[in-house]
Amino acid sequence: MQTMRFVLLLLIGVAGLSTANAHPWGGLVIDADGHVYFTFICPLVDDDHYACVWQLGDGAEPTSVLESQRSPSDIVLARSPGRTIYGAERTGSGHHQSRLWQRASSDWETVVAPTTDPAQFHIQAYAVADDGTLFFARDAQLFKRDTAGTVTPVPLNAPFERIDALAWGPDDALYLLNQGTLHIVASDGTVRTLATGLKEEDPEHLPFSGANILFDLAVDDAGNAYLAYYGNRRVLKVSATGEVSTFLQAESPWSPHGVDVYNGRVYVLESTVGGGTWWKIWERPVITPRVRAVHPDGHVTTVFEHRPPVD
Fold first, then answer.
1. CB-based burial of residue 230 (10 Å sphere; 0-12 exposed, 13-18 middle, 19+ buried)?
2. What is the pLDDT of residues 108-165, one digit of tens each?
3. Which end of the chain, C or N, has fewer beta carbons within 10 A?
4. Beta strands across the sheet bearing 28-30
5. 72 Cβ contact list (under 8 Å, min separation 6)
6. Which residue from 154, 123, 144, 28 is spatially nearest to 85, judged by alpha carbons?
7. Domains, the chain
8. How far apart are CA 291 and CA 57, in angstroms?
9. Measured distance CA(144)–CA(16) in Å, rounded
10. Residue 63 · residue 111 · CB < 8 Å
């Protein structure tokens, strides 16, 4: 299972944009049938901040399957181990409202009704088990919400500064990202550290000031973890034994902020920062997304890339 945790209402001030955009970056998940979902704004290039879930099909452009009704907003995607798709929305600024949907056939069903109470649900990071049990983080604490709506703290035998991402691994182990450290939480709450120092203090490929963030986490069936390191334009791989390596390096202007694994392929959601000169197409004066896939043999293909018209 994979939880997509990204920039929530991140203010981006970059040269060449008419305004500083609060941008719901979103994540990427893949269902049991191989359909790719990712979140971005709606439409894909716009000055407003309506979050949207897009589904990739056989056509050249994705289809919008879930749209926020308020701006600013974020939709954070997740999937259960059995690949049921979930979308958590946070809307508003200051006094936030959160809710949770489940993808059911061609529609979305409400799992957690809209609430302003972070003790009931918070989308800082979340994961959903196959039986519907919801785990979510608030600051450094992990909580469990059962299908009846009862919320209880999950005791952990280690202190954390902040829980940034959650993802299911083999044997129902919950992988937990705390700043630049990756942990594995067993079913009894025992925490084991898998890797440290994942976030560099001064990354070489920082897209812009304040962007040094590890956004997303996915784990394959062998226990290898993949992290979308937006702040260094790369996807990190942490092996089941804790060995850290660069799995995929993106070149400017692209930076990764979503990752999932399906049938041996690693899918990565990336976007541009924007702010280029209008006539230099490669500099991307607007923020646009793309999805790439890394195949088992290391070959990289582009699954989708949005190319806005240039005036």
1. buried
2. 999 999 999 999 999 999 999 999 999 999 999 999 999 999 999 999 988 888 999 9
3. C
4. 28-30, 36-41, 51-56, 63-67
5. 9, 22, 24, 49, 91, 92, 93
6. 28
7. 2-305 (2.130.10.10)
8. 12
9. 44
10. no
Instruction: Report whether pLDDT(203) > 90.
Output: yes
Phi, psi of 198, rounded to the nearest 5 degrees: -75, -25
Contact 272, 252 (CB under 8 A): no
How would you classify the pairing of strands 36-41 and 28-30? antiparallel
Which tens digits make up the pLDDT trace of 204-244?
999 888 899 999 999 999 999 999 999 999 999 999 999 99
How many residues belong to the chain?
311
Return the bridge partners of 61, or none. Answer: none
First to last CA, the chain: 42
- Does residue 167 contact residue 173 with C-beta atoms inside 8 Å? no
Amino acid (1-letter code) at residue 237: K
Q: How far is CA 198 from the centre of its chain?
A: 17
Residue 4, number of CB atoms within 10 A of its CB:
34
**pLDDT at residue 9 is higher than 50:** no
